[in-house]
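Quarterly update, task 2.4: zinc ion-bound model.
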Amino acid sequence: MNEDSALVLFSGGQDSTTCLAWALARFSRVETVGFDYGQRHSVELDCRAAVRQSLASGFADWAQRLGPDHVLDLRFIRALGQSAMTEAIQIEMQNNALPNTFVPGRNLLFFTAAAALAYRRGLKRLVGGMCETDYSGYPDCRDDTLKALQATLNLGMESRLVVETPLMWIDKAETWTLARDLGGNALVELIKHKTHTCYVGDRENLHAWGYGCGACPACELRANGYKVFTAMA
Ligand code: ZN
């Protein structure tokens, strides 16, 4: 296993793109993995190649470090039940105080699949954009959940993987700031134009903070974070 290597859970959104830049700035060998879990729209997955390409063409140091991309088929997740992420249903709160965009087990399955891939590829670190600071309350984004999962994965695979979550304790405005610190305004612009966050898959409407419907919870978070970020700048 190469100590100086990472596998980034890369969806093509703002958070995972910032995580990819974070990993490229630190580790000499970086690969990416994406998951097809039957999401409602393939916009995010479609953005992945363009983001990787832009990172490679815009940042020469990072181009040398960026290794292969992997896409894993986890479409059985859709068969496990309805959520607003996989079905065209209204986004709303459930009785358990979680929004129905919550896909039970999703991040646990993502990390388990990523860990198996990292094991095969000899990659030491698993990097994910999970965040406890201004999130939707998903229990599988919690720091404790992911630390426990790291221990479980290492026990179950006799390995020494490290789960890295660089966004865990920062908010959306600070995520924009982190991007600027890593790659300057060029990276901020790349994230704005090439990444996708909107839950309903809107790539028509361009705002100051990027493309999206402007109304769904993901757009609201992204827009508010950008507003605070530009006010600080
Ligand atoms: Zn939206």
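Highlight for this quarter: The pocket of zinc ion is lined by residues 198-200, 202, 212-213, 215-216, 218-219 (CB under 6 Å).
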